[in-house]
Specification:
Elements: H1 2-9, H2 11-27, H3 36-51, H4 59-64, H5 67-75, H6 85-101, H7 105-118, H8 123-139, H9 143-156, H10 161-177, H11 181-193, H12 199-212
Helix pairs in contact: 2-3, 6-7, 7-8, 8-9, 9-10, 10-11
């Protein structure tokens, strides 16, 4: 695995080298067909570098929390528009997530929208993307856009109970603001049924529970 990751890391330069060497050999008198395999390897290396990219290398630094290395790998993608569409979508999602971590919400929204427009390779990834867009819209006070995105996230599917709980709690608060209390209570019940364990989500449920039982509907 480490050897394969090493090849991916230096794939572009290996591809360039695999083309330069046979060119020099041809100039020195070696026949084209004798060097064809090197040309072939070089073309494949360059094609996969631009079409697939180095995103496979991100998993390990992500698990270690090495955001600087993640950003370095993302920066090594020179032409994201050449990436295969599902990989390009993942690239923009990662760019959006990194921007959110740096509290650059305008950049985060831009990249997440680009990913959403492309469509995700997995429905769960699409759901997480739309949930993030919904939460950012709510932070800006755009309740209508936030509701649309969060509904789309729920329809697309969310991979874990924490994300589902956040989506349902957000919908509950949206409907409380709209004074549609029956729908608000229904979404709150769904959030509790997810049985989240993240402290922030659990605290939010406890806070809402203090007064939601007293409202009509």
């Amino acid at each position: 695995m480490k050897f394969y990751n090493l090849i991916i890391k230096y794939r572009f330069w290996l591809g360039v080298l695999a083309i330069i060497i046979p060119i020099l050999m041809n100039i020195s008198g070696v026949g084209f067909w004798s060097t064809f395999i090197l040309y072939f390897i070089g073309v494949i290396a360059l094609f996969t570098h631009f079409f697939i990219g180095p995103l496979r290398l991100i998993q390990e630094p992500m698990e270690k929390g090495d955001t600087a290395e993640v950003e370095r790998i993302l920066a090594s993608v020179w032409f994201p528009k050449l990436l295969y569409t599902p990989i390009r979508s993942t690239y923009f999602t990662l760019k959006g997530n990194m921007a959110m971590m740096n509290q650059d919400f305008d950049s985060a929204e831009k990249h997440l929208k680009m990913s959403s427009n492309l469509g995700a390779a997995m429905p769960e990834a699409e759901g997480a993307n739309k949930l993030q867009l919904g939460m950012m819209a709510l932070q800006k006070g755009d309740m209508r856009q936030g509701e649309n995105y969060i509904r789309a996230a729920i329809r697309a599917g969310l991979a874990d109970k924490e994300s589902k709980a956040v989506a349902y709690l957000s919908m509950s608060q949206i409907f409380m603001n709209k004074r549609e209390f029956r729908a608000a209570k229904d979404f709150f019940r769904k959030a509790k049924e997810c049985k989240p364990t993240t402290k922030q989500v659990v605290d939010q449920i406890k806070e809402i529970e203090k007064y939601i039982s007293r409202i009509p509907g």
